[in-house]
Amino acid sequence: MRLVKKDQAGASFELPPLPYPMEALAPRISRETLQFHYGKHHKAYVDKLNQLVQGSGQQDATLEEIIRSATGALFNNAAQAWNHSFYWQSMAPAGTTSAPGGELAKAIESTFGSQENLRQLFRKHATEKFGSGWTWLARTRDGLLVVRNTNDADTPLRTGDTPLLTCDVWEHAYYIDHRNDRAAYVDAFWSVANWRFAEENFRT
Ligand code: FE
C-alpha cells in the first residue's frame, strides 16, 4: 500500500494530507492533538526521512522498499512516516464506520469468538505495551488474524504481515487529551476505528 508518495519531481516524500479535518475526531481525539501529532510529529518524521534519504543510495526507492531494507535512523523515520499515515487512515469520524462487516467480521468471529473479545484483546495489548510503540490488528502470511505490539518505529511490514488497523501508543498520541490515561485513549481510538479501511486491507 503506497500511503506516502514522492513529490512531482520525485525528489522527496510528501506529508500526506489528513483524510479528514483536524476537528473531525473530536472530542475523542482533539483538534489540538492532531495539530501536534500530525502537524509537528508526523511532519518531523517525513522531513527527517527526506534529509536522511539524500546520499543514502536509496533516493529512487519507495518508502516501503526503504522500510524493508534500512536500519538505524533511516529505518526509524521511514517507518514512522508510514506508520502515522496508516494510523490516520485507521480512524474516521465517530459513527461513520460503525463495526467490522463482511469477510473481516466473519474472520474476527472465528478467530477471537466475537468483536467484543477482539476489543478487549486489543485494549489489553495497547494498555500493557511498555514504552513507545504501536498496537496492530494484522493478518499474518499464513492468513491468521492477530493482535500484536511493535516497539518504537517497528512495523508488520518488516515481517511480511498485512496490517489492517493500528493504534499509536506513543505518549505523544494521547498526552494532550488524556494525560497518562492510556486506557481512556485506547477506548477513544476504538470508538473512531475505521472498519471500512480495515476491511479494505483485509481484502488485499
Ligand atoms: Fe505518533
How would the blueprint of this fold be written?
Elements: H1 31-53, H2 63-69, H3 72-89, H4 102-112, H5 115-128, E1 133-139, E2 145-151, E3 162-168, H6 175-178, H7 182-191, H8 195-203
Antiparallel strand pairs: 1-2, 1-3
Helix pairs in contact: 1-3, 2-3, 4-8, 5-7
The structure holds fe (iii) ion.
CATH topology-level name of the largest domain? minor pseudopilin epsh fold
Largest sheet at a glance?
3 strands, antiparallel
Shape: globular
The CATH class of the largest domain, by name, is Alpha Beta
Q: How many separate domains?
A: 2
Average pLDDT works out at 95
Assigned CATH superfamily of the largest domain: Iron/manganese superoxide dismutase, C-terminal domain
How would you describe this structure to a colleague?
The chain has a 3-stranded antiparallel beta sheet. α1 (31-53) runs antiparallel to α3 (72-89). It is globular and about 50 Å long. The protein has 2 domains: 31-89, Orthogonal Bundle (Helix Hairpins), CATH 1.10.287; 102-203, Iron/manganese superoxide dismutase, C-terminal domain (minor pseudopilin epsh fold, 3-Layer(bab) Sandwich). The chain contains 8 helices and 3 strands. 47% of the residues lie in helices and 10% in strands. The longest helix is centred in the N-terminal third of the chain and has 23 residues, at 31-53. With 204 residues, it is mainly α. The model has no long low-confidence stretch (mean pLDDT 95). It binds fe (iii) ion.
